[in-house]
Amino acid sequence: MALITSVFDARLRTRIIAISQGTFTACHLSGPIVGGMFAAMQWWRGSFWMMAPLMLVFAALAYWKIPDRLSREAERSRFTGVPFLRFATLAAGGALHERALASLHPGRTV
Q1: How far apart are CA 33 and CA 16, in angstroms?
Q2: In angstroms, rounded to a whole number, what is the distance separating the alpha carbons of residues 70 and 79?
């Protein structure tokens, strides 16, 4: 919400917030359906793999489109940096943990 109020003019804020909330509602309603379809195919991890390219695209768009300077109020509370190395380490640890569990129980899907 702080990003919306600092990026968009006052006359557009209501419309942008409505679109944002509508998008979140649609995702919350369709998420279990899509996840259920992957579970029915016996490949529930596929839902996560399907999201990986989308997350990369949206992260690149956000980095490119969100302005560097925000209003003073938003600037004071803005997160100073994104710890990409920490995120990569966490993801690598999760992948290694998954591989270790898979090797302990071959043929078992969780």
Answers
A1: 26
A2: 12
| Counts of helices then strands in the chain (DSSP H, E) | 5, 0
Q: 61: which 2 tokens?
A: 């768009």
CA distance linking residue 78 with residue 3, whole number of Å = 9
Q: Tell whether pTM > 0.70.
A: no
Question: How do residues 79-100 score in pLDDT, each as one tens digit?
Answer: 556 677 788 888 898 888 888 8
Instruction: Return d(Cα 58, Cα 64) in angstroms, integer.
Output: 10
The per-residue pLDDT for 48 is 83
Among 66, 30, 34, 63, residue whose Cα is nearest residue 48: 34
